[in-house]
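Support reply, case 0932

Customer input (verbatim):
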Amino acid sequence: MPAPTGSPAPRLFSRGSWPEVKRIGDILRTETIGGALLVVAAAVALIWANSPWSDSYAALREIRIGPAALHLHLTLSQWAADGLLAIFFFVVGLELKREFVAGDLRDVRRAALPIAAAVGGMTVPALIYVAVNAGRTDGALAGWAIPTATDIAFALAVLAVIGTHLPAALRTFLLTLAVVDDLLAITIIAIFYTDRLNLLPLGLALVPLGLFALLVQRRVRSWWLLLPLAVATWVLVHESGVHATVAGVLLGFAVPVIRRAEGPGPGLAEHFEHRFRPISAGAAVPIFAFFAAGVSISGAGGLGDAFTDTITIGIIGGLVVGKLVGVLGSTWLVQRFTHAELAEGLSWWDVFGLALLAGIGFTVSLLIGELAFGEGTAADDHVRIGVLCGSLIAAALATVVLRIRNRVYRRLCVEEERDTDADGIPDVYQRP
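Our regenerated output:
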């Protein structure tokens, strides 16, 4: 129903609080550097895999290390996907919990929009992929979840470069959408991509996880106590058959957000996030990208075969068209049913550009591809080509739209900066 007479209409993408805007800015700076490293790592892998020395790249990926007794004698590629990405999902868990416990999104009205956009942005790409591959009986439908994920580092890095003056609310929206998207993706991985389930180690994983939760709830920060418990949780979840990155999310959820004692300073979740986000963005994700992105695009099984394969077509269609329709359509439906209005100065072209940007699916999409079809298979190679091409197309289209909008906001930001007091906080965040 319409808002009561005399009450202001709800606003979509309204300006958040200054502490939250400042925190998002800090995250963006870290993710921008990480996104640049991710792109460089993926480019190096792609060039190496298509060079005369491609055999050495394949041999590097297949080097095995780790204790065989614990079923951890894994290839370097598997360590990157199962081990390093657990750090990435630990940070995702920390960020998501903080957003909904202490961030601006603890307000249900603010949280509804990015959640709805994330759900729509996962549902429509999956439907497009299924529709394109509906007639196949060779297992191609197993990849239905590949185009559903938005890559946080890659998308935010592109946004930081092309949208230097876009409103902070749009950046917050994209960050939160991507975080919720990753949470839903890891849930899909746990439910739909678990081939075997060993209940004994899964149950035993609750012991170190519980001890970890008990210690962090008591605000213990000692790494020599927490790290062995985290590693034990990861090992047992890995042994259970559930993808080991799920352990990272569970450990992140266990960390408290609110400070127990009053006084200045960050809570424990924010403290861990400051410590581990640089490791995740600067090392874990780029290393995974290096091992996952190297695919041959020439000769047999290259681009010619890939672009006639409905797996590749479904992924590109899901990332470019599906994400756009899902995110933009869900945002419109929220606006339609809540009778909300866009915040002053914003345009639906902004939402259009962000929806395109959400089509950058890289890290989690590649991970799901490996789980769906098996690492090193022809289908997995086509997945990598589809993810790379779809992400590049989405990034290019988003760049065109958001660069145009960025020119408009550049002028407005100059005026806003003039209204900043000596305390460093823009006046717009201090007005009643």
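We compared this against your earlier run and they match. Two observations from our side: DSSP finds 16 helices and four strands in the chain. Confidence is low (pLDDT under 50) at residues 427-432. Please reopen the case if you see a mismatch on your end.
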